[in-house]
Structure formats: structure tokens, C-alpha cells
Amino acid sequence: MEINSMYFYFLKPILRKLRQPDIRLILGLALIFVLMILIFAFVLSTYEKGVTFFDGLWTAYITLTTIGYGDVSAVTPQGRWVTVLTSMLGIGCFGVLTGIILERAMQRRIKKMKGEGKYTGKGHLIIVNVPSYAETTELMKELDYSPDFKDIPRVIIAAHLPNQDKEIPHFLSHQIEAFIMGLPSALETLKRANAEQAKACVLTSSASSPEMDDTNTLTAGLIEKNWSQVTTVMTYSRAETLGNLSTFGIDGGISTTDLQMGLLVQELEDPGLYQVYSELSSNSGGNQIYISQSPVGSWEIHDKELSFGSLKVASIQLNLPVEILGIQNKASAKPTLNPENNLILAPTDHIVYMSRKRFDWLKNKDQIIQQINKVP
Predict the structure, then answer these.
(1) Which of 137, 199, 237, 370 could hold 207 in an S-S bridge, CB 3.0 to 4.6 Å?
(2) CATH, residue 23
(3) How far apart are CA 322 and CA 133, in angstroms?
(4) How far apart are CA 143 and CA 224, in angstroms?
(5) Are residues 129 and 240 in the same domain?
(6) What value does the mean pLDDT of the chain take?
(7) The domain containing residue 66 runs over which residues?
(8) For residue 319, what are the CA distances in angstroms to 55, 353, 367?
(9) Is residue 308 part of a domain?
(10) Cα–Cα distance for residue pair 242/250, rounded to 1 Å
(11) Phi-psi region for residue 227, left (φ > 0), alpha (ψ -120 to 50) or beta?
């Protein structure tokens, strides 16, 4: 009974494939192909002088494939008739096969453009929503410059597209691996995007559509509930949405409205400040702001406690390519920027710093500790 069940388990996907019309047609063509080769070889070896059955098989093959070397040719009426029929059948079979291949390719392309397929890869980045093509294109550009995400496959999920488009534009489809059309907050849609094996998820929104905050929060919360290993970051336009991030276990969020208004006032106070922000926030060049991936505050210093000031001094003395700005404790919602130099780092404190690229603190841990210990 168990052996029969095992055979059925392996035969089930094969039987499912055989129900597809294209597969049955290809198998039918293959059967006709084999039968014609055997008939052709039999006729030639029977009626043509000096032609063996194996010569007939070879001639049948090059005739069906329309190659026609001419090293063996038919002389008798029977041989010529079977050669004509075989060559015509070969042209027809390969024409049908080419049509099936092209049709399949077109169907896959149409399914991708319309978002009707699914993604089976892993380690990818899911991008939820397309607020506008300009914003999504800018996001793609920043991802291209990101050392952590430039080589990661991208999958877009959207319930609808800008301008009520039914298909994703070509210029955007070339930058992603898959497009899933469907409600992002539906579990079935997330499964089509293979969210379970994704690395991260970015949920975008538009300031003109504050209701998207609710959908994004629900979607991110659903991902965190089912696949907590996936990093979720979202944009929001309503201040009250900030309180929902920790409630749903969402890893991070950016307020588009507060950011714009804050920058507007700072630009008013110090014209030109926006250019500084643009360089720090963009991955395309210049310096960026990072948070250390490991807690630097957990380092053990000989006979002394690790202070914020001693860490800054050591980085300057070692001429490290970083500018230390503050600390970030994972238990705290906000980082502490420019703290007092005598502030003792807690074991869970991460470093907020500015650099041209991400700095490996663990790799440089020993030389930094040695430098700190040199100071009396």
C-alpha cells in the first residue's frame, strides 16, 4: 500500500502535465517523428540498393530536420515518395513546435506584465505599491547604488498601477524579476510573491493617499506575523501611523510629511542645507549615514568602561574613514545624536556614523580597543 502511494506521489505531477494541451501536442509530434523515421528507414533499406536500415535512419533524420546532406538519396519511386512526405512532415512538425515555443514565451511575458504569475525565487526584495512611476524609478535607482541591495532580485506587488494601467511598463519590468497584481494585504498575494523566503520588504505610499498607511501597516504586520525574519520598512503620511509600527512588529518607517516639513523649515533657516541632506540620504555618491550592524557597546575594555568620547578619539587617532555621530539603542525609538563625551555605552548600543561606505566595526574591533587602552 505504501509503495503504491509512493508511485502515485511521483506520477501525480506527470499526469497533471499530460493534461496540458501543449504537452500532449508535443508528445504527439514526437511520436509521429519517431514513426516517420522508422517508416522512412524501412522503405529505403527495402527498395534502395546498398542502403542499410541504419543508413535509412540517418537519412530519415536529416530529411525530417530539413538538413539534407545528400550523402544518401532515393532513386526508386517508393523512396522518393517517402522522402517527399518525410520532408514535408518535418517542415510542418518544426513549424508547429516553433509556434508552441513562441506562444509559451509570449504567455510568460504577458503574465509578467499583467502580474498574473508568481515568484519562486528566494532572498529577494519585495516592493509594495507603485505610488507613481517616477517615485518607483527613483527607488530602483537608489537600490542600484546600495551595496546591500543592488544585486538582490526585486518583486513588485500592487493592487493597481498609476494611470489605471493594466500592465507594468517595459522600462520598469526590466528592473524587476516579477510583478504580482493583487491586494498586498491578502495572504494569497504575499504567497504568490514568495514572501516567506524574501530578505526584506519595502512598503511605499503617497502623501496624497493617506489611506495607504492602513493597507501598508496591515501588510507589514501580516508579514511580521507569518515570516518575522523578513525585514519590513514602510513610508507613512499620517503621524498616528508611527505608533502602529511597534504594535505590529514593523522594523522601521519614514514619515514623508514630517520629513518634508522639517527640511522646509531648516532650508528656510539655513539655505543650502537641503543639498547636505541630499548627499547624506542618497546612495548614488558622497557620504551616507549608517548604523553599526553589531552592538559596539558590548566590547570589553581592559579596566575601564567604553565611553562615547573615547571611541571618537580612537577613530580619529587611527584615521578611520568614519565620523561618529551618536548611538542607537534597539530598545529606544530615537537615536541619541551628539551625546556627551563621557556617556558610557550600554551593551546594546549601536553606533550611528557617517562614511562613504559601510564600515566593518567587528573587523576593526581589536585595533580600536588597543588604541583606547593606550590612553591613560
Answers:
(1) 237
(2) 1.10.287.70
(3) 35
(4) 22
(5) yes
(6) 83
(7) 2-113
(8) 79, 14, 12
(9) yes
(10) 10
(11) beta
Q: Which residues contact 41 (CB under 8 A, 6 or more apart)?
A: 53, 54, 55, 56, 57, 59, 60
Q: What is the pTM of this model?
A: 0.66
For 45, residues 6+ apart whose C-beta sits below 8 A from its C-beta are 51, 52, 53, 55, 56
Closest CA to 54 of 62, 46, 43, 45: 45
- Is the CB of residue 238 less than 8 Å from the CB of residue 213? yes
In angstroms, the CA 330 to CA 335 distance is 9
Instruction: Name the domain boundary from 64, 81, 113.
Output: 113
Q: Which amino acid, one-letter code, is at 6? A: M
pLDDT at 6: 52
Q: Is 347 helix (H, G, I), strand (E, B) or coil?
A: coil
d(CA 298, CA 291): 15
pLDDT digits (tens, 9 = 90+) for 133-192: 998 998 898 888 888 888 999 999 999 999 889 888 988 988 999 999 999 999 999 999
3-state DSSP assignment of residue 361: coil
Name the one residue in this structure whose C-alpha cell is 527613483: 138
Does the residue 320 lie in any domain? yes
Give the rounded distance of the alpha carbon of 91 from its chain centre.
41
Please give the Cα distance from 331 to 286 (Å, whole number): 30
DSSP 280-320: HH-SSSS-EEEE-SS-GGG---TTSPPBHHHHHHHHHHTT-
Taking only Cα atoms into account, the Rg of the chain, rounded to an integer number of angstroms, comes to 33
Higher pLDDT, 99 or 139: 139
User: What is the Cα–Cα distance from 87 to 80, expressed in whole angstroms?
Assistant: 11
Contact 204, 131 (CB under 8 A): yes
In a domain, 267, yes or no: no
Q: Quote the CA–CA distance of 201 and 146 in Å, as a whole number.
A: 15
What is the distance between the alpha carbons of residues 68 and 64, in angstroms, rounded to a whole number? 9
Alpha carbon separation from 118 to 23, 113, 115, 128, 224 (Å, rounded): 21, 12, 8, 15, 21
Question: Quick one: 150 and 233 in the same domain?
Answer: yes
Q: What is the pLDDT of residues 312-363, one digit of tens each?
A: 999 999 999 999 999 998 766 678 999 999 999 998 999 999 998 889 999 9
Cα→Cα distances 20→15, 25, 27, Å: 9, 9, 11
Contact (Cβ atoms closer than 8 angstroms) between residue 267 and residue 288:
no
**Per-state percent for the chain, helix, strand, coil, to nearest 5:** 50, 15, 35
Given 85, 113, 141, the domain boundary residue is: 113
